[in-house]
């Protein structure tokens, strides 16, 4: 899975604001509606339902919210960088400013793709140097280039 396969440059928000977890998840829903043709409320509801089961704030200012969405035919993503970090009930208690949301098809056959995407994004976002560069990037294109470069398998 290449990053560009799931993350369209139009689904990257390099500067967003939101005072609460719900507001930020709503931004993700709005972006998914605009770029993927999904219903914003359906996306928000799916993300909120998943958050109710436990925060997707993985630490170091990062959250990986995810949900299964009816009508989606393939794994898709939305990336949001917040201007001001917000409380997100992350595992380390730190506020979140980088959100890499994953939206999976609702059907059960997508389980392995969903898990592989979660694992890949989690590995990517654990890289301190990448997080620092993402926080400095000023455009969607720059953010996508950073994510693609870091996601490339290293030549060994």
Put the structure in a nutshell.
The chain has 156 residues and is α/β, with parallel strands linked by helices.
Structure description:
The structure is a single chain. The protein has 156 residues and is of the alpha/beta class. It has one domain (3-149): Mannitol-specific EII, Chain A (3-Layer(aba) Sandwich). The chain is 45% helix and 22% strand. It has 6 helices and 6 strands, in the order αβααβββββααα. The chain has helices at residues 3-6, 21-36, 40-53, 111-125, 128-136, 140-151, and strands at residues 12-16, 57-59, 62-63, 66-69, 76-86, 96-105. Strands 1, 2, 3, 4, 5 and 6 form a 6-stranded mixed sheet that branches. A hairpin with a 2-residue loop joins strand 2 and strand 3. Helix 2 (21-36) packs across helix 3 (40-53).
**How much of the polypeptide forms β-strand, as a percent range?**
15-25%
For the CA atoms, what is the radius of gyration?
14 Å
In N-to-C order, the SSE pattern is HEHHEEEEEHHH
Largest sheet: 6 strands, mixed
- Per CATH, the superfamily is Mannitol-specific EII, Chain A
Strand-helix topology:
Blueprint: H1 3-6, E1 12-16, H2 21-36, H3 40-53, E2 57-59, E3 62-63, E4 66-69, E5 76-86, E6 96-105, H4 111-125, H5 128-136, H6 140-151
Parallel strand pairs: 1-5, 3-6, 4-6
Antiparallel strand pairs: 2-3, 5-6
Which descriptors apply to this entry?
Mannitol-specific EII, Chain A; six-stranded mixed beta sheet; about 160 residues; 6 helices; globular; single chain; about 45% helix; alpha/beta
């Amino acid at each position: 899975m290449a990053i560009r396969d799931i993350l369209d440059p139009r689904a990257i928000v390099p500067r967003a604001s939101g005072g609460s977890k719900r507001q930020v998840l709503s931004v993700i829903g709005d972006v998914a509606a605009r770029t993927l043709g999904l219903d914003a409320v359906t996306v928000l509801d799916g993300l909120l339902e998943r958050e109710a089961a436990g925060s997707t704030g993985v630490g170091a200012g990062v959250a990986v919210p995810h949900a299964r969405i009816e009508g989606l035919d393939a794994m898709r993503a939305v990336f949001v960088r917040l201007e001001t970090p917000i409380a997100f009930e992350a595992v380390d208690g730190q506020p979140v400013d980088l959100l890499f949301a994953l939206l999976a098809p609702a059907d059960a056959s997508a389980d392995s793709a969903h898990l592989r995407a979660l694992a890949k994004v989690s590995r990517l976002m654990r890289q301190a140097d990448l997080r620092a560069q993402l926080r400095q990037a000023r455009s969607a294109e720059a953010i996508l280039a950073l994510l693609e470069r870091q996601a490339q398998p290293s030549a060994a």
